[in-house]
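Thread: quick sanity check before group meeting

JM: Hey all, I'm pulling together slides for Thursday and realized we never actually wrote out the predicted structure for the chain we discussed last week. Dropping the sequence here so it's in one place. If anyone has concerns about the input, flag it before I start.
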Amino acid sequence: MRLSPEERLPSMQRNFSALMARVLYRWCLRWAVGFALIWAITNVTGRFDWLWPLGIVVAAITLTFTFGAQIMIRRKFHAVERAGG
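JM (edit): ok, ran it. Output follows.
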C-alpha cells in the first residue's frame, strides 16, 4: 500500500531533521580541519595570511547555503502540510 505525501510527512520531517544535524556536524568538522590547516600553513611558512579571510568568507558562504537549503525544504514541508489539512 502506497502512502500519500501527507501520511509520510512526519517521518520525512524527522529524517530531514536528522539529516540536517549530520550536515551541520560535518560542516563543523570540515571547517575545523580546514582552519587547522590554514593555521598550520600560515604558522610554518609565515606567509599566506590571506588564507584566513578567504577561509572565513568561504565558510560563511557554505553555511549560508546550508541554512538556505534547510529553510527552502522546510517551507516545502509546511506547504504540503497546509495542502493536506
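AS: nice. Helices lie at 5-45, 51-84. DSSP finds two helices and no strands in the chain.
JM: adding both to the slides.
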